[in-house]
Amino acid sequence: MSGNAIELHGVSKRYGPFQALYPLDLTVPYGTVFGYLGPNGAGKTTTIRIMTGLLRPTTGSVFIGGLDVHRHPREARRLFSYIPDQGYLYPKMTARELLSFVSAVQDRNSPDPKAVEAALDLVGLRAWADELIEQYSYGMRQRLMFAMAHLRDTPVWIIDEPIIGLDPLAVRMVKTWVRQKAARGHTVFLSTHLLAIAEEVCDTVAVLHQGRLVAVGTMDDLRRAAGAEDRDLEAVFLRLTAESQAATEA
């Protein structure tokens, strides 16, 4: 795959007088796990909704695989899978029924039973595949969201807060899955406020604070930018956001 997986050019979002996201430029190549970090309310989900075409930016443009998401939405959406932090699942269906339905819709034909079973195995839900989704815990529902996304083998994956509510076994599954996607040349855009996860799986990270991009680069790049070369990501993150806060208030 040539070119970049994701490009954001001057993307911003304003709600009346409130500037939720200041002009943002990002480039994410293929074969990368890109961590998008920031505290709650920083503008991460706003960015992702713009990237996936669910929200129009006030300014700027987004390209997935070279396609403008807002000018060519149908074509661009074929290139990425989106796993939201809280997706809607039909509560009166079983996991197997839902996955079969999604598989049939995507193929515009009939469901692929092998793909459905593989997705259930991937997230460890085979034993509960015929239970109603309304009986699932939050963590099990999150696993099912991953299973649904896995039915499509897209080159770009956009994931919003994937670890929240998952048990340790499921967290390990997600981390392994993310690294495997990157090893295959896919791109994973991972939004999170859990710094330990980002430090463990991400090749490059960007730090967002109050709608502004504070820093972007490898962990070593961020340590140098924060003047904290021997510190972990939490210390670097706190230093960078504190500096951003001081600059904003000055």
Keywords:
four-stranded antiparallel β-sheet; alpha/beta
What would you note in describing this structure?
The protein has 250 residues and is α/β, with parallel strands linked by helices. The protein has two domains: 4-79 and 155-249, P-loop containing nucleotide triphosphate hydrolases (Rossmann fold); 88-153, no CATH class. 39% of the residues lie in helices and 26% in strands. It has nine helices and ten strands. The protein has helices at residues 44-51, 73-77, 95-107, 113-122, 138-150, 168-183, 195-201, 219-226, 233-249, and strands at 4-15, 18-29, 33-37, 59-64, 67-68, 80-83, 156-160, 187-192, 204-209, 212-217. A six-stranded mixed β-sheet has the order 6-7-8-3-9-10, sandwiched between helices. Strands 2-1-4-5 form a four-stranded antiparallel β-sheet. β9 and β10 form a beta hairpin. The longest helix is centred in the last third of the chain and has 17 residues, at 233-249.
Widest sheet: strand order?
Answer: 6-7-8-3-9-10
Specify Rg, calculated over alpha carbons. 19 Å
Q: Report the mean per-residue pLDDT as an integer.
A: 87
Q: Stretches where pLDDT falls below 50 for ≥5 residues?
A: none
Q: What number of structural domains do the residues give? A: 2
Number of helices: 9
CATH class of the largest domain: Alpha Beta
Please name the fourth-level CATH homologous superfamily of the largest domain: P-loop containing nucleotide triphosphate hydrolases
